[in-house]
Amino acid sequence: MSDLQSRLSQAFARHQAGDLPAAEQGYRAVLAVDPNHWQAMSLLATIGLQVGNFAFAEQGFRASLQRQPKQPDAWLNLANAQRELRQLDAAADSLRQCLTLKPDYWQAKVNLANVEVMRKDYEEAISLCREVIAVVPDFVDAHHALGLALWEARALPEALAACDAALTLQPGAPETLLTRGHVLRALNQPEAGLQCYDAALAAQTDNAKICMSRADVLCELRRFDEALAAYDRALKLQPGDPDTEMAKGMTLLLMGEMAHGWQHYEARLRTPARAAELARFPMPMLSPDTALAGKHILLHGEQGFGDAIQFCRYACLLLEAGAKVTLAVRKPLMRLMQTLTPQIAVVDQATVLLSGFDHHCPLLSLPYVLLTRCPQIPATIPYLSAGGLRYPMDSDTGRCKPLRLGIVWSGSPTHRGDYARSIPLAKWSDLLAMEGLEVHSLQAQVRDADRAALQALAVHDHAEQLGDFLDTAALIEPLGLVITVDTSVAHLAGALGKPVWILIPHTPDFRWMLDRTDTPWYPQARLFRQAAPGDWDGVLNEVSVALRPMLSHAG
Questions:
Q1: What is the mean pLDDT of residues 50-66?
Q2: Using only C-alpha atoms, what is the Rg of the chain?
Q3: Spatial separation of the C-alpha atoms in residues 492 and 411, rounded to whole Å
Q4: Angle (deg, nearest 10), helices 140-152 and 122-135
């Protein structure tokens, strides 16, 4: 054995023994003699991967593979580093290179499935896992990855079965218990989900991700003091984690603690996706101590359509403070937002030129920025309109005019909480069959699962005429009432000043707070809340009872 190979073997022995500093020193000694030693490069990069220096690891594996590309393990580990760096396309390419060299490298195929989940190609991830399980039925990682992919695809019974298969092979595995807890929550079994998280945390007490998930389900169970303690425990394990701090902020807002809630909610701007978005703005962000008079402020949407509709009201406070305001929103909102006030320029968020402004601010940061100036929610209603646009309706005939009712039964299927807020249209059948109703669908998109019910019910479907939110506003204007789940139309009807009944899950989004049937965001709105997770039948029965007096006086 050569002296160089002996040094490498000694360093590798220290590596296997867990003495990473000694191993690193040994690998660097080899590279000092032979800078092109690809084995030492890969092993040194592996240490970088182990200690969380992913950029160093990625560079090291690339350098090694340039010198010796036929290293399946190096391709796999390069992909691991790229995944941690959120270079998902590159990670998938690296894993496919690995599988080209070693087609039966099952761990690489499972890792590729996990990357495809992150890329939201759930069908491909499920297919990859099932390929592995067909050949190696006792490969526990494949069963867990399958459960995760099926959960993300919202194939919930199948996801639960995959998690159970993984736990049969490896009882008490914390990552599988974590995924199983997610599935049970989506199946409206939060108590069972909490049991999974408790078991996972008992097996891995220092896992911040499990602590955060446990806090989330405690919120769903309305055990808020325990939830806040669990978020704090997660933050001790992972200080400054933006997702955890944001979740804590939303819990405080849900409890009505506005000042601390908005402050913690600002942590969302430190998440990788939000931070990357904010980095493109050359001007400073608005802060609570910014002098506003004479400043030109660029406001921009950052989340859903409903969020923009709800929070654009704060733009008028900037005008009152003497600022000039430009509002950048996505194209479907532009015509609607032009009705806010002629003093605010509305531009397309996708093409706005980021020059000529003194400050910028995401719309959902305005309550925090303006809290000292406006401690109460500004609720001058209406603050949006249909801008004179009129939606043609059939003329009323006969002596008794029906109550024109607009309904929305589902939100975006890609929303992570959609399972808790959307209601299958078939469940509405008894309510919509009540005499004295003229029912209009305000859904811009109808899911395939609801099409049969829509055709069977006496509902006017306007989906083809709803091009943007101003069209929807024009359709809402002649209606007597809107009943909707928690989605953008709830905010649109509220901003238009129309009577709106909003159907709220047992644990609501933070903006609806707790227990009350009204909301300071939209004083004319009425909230109908689930008595228990998943209990939409009870909510719809309560709505039917509330509707009867209105129908008896129709006309």
A1: 95
A2: 28
A3: 13
A4: 160
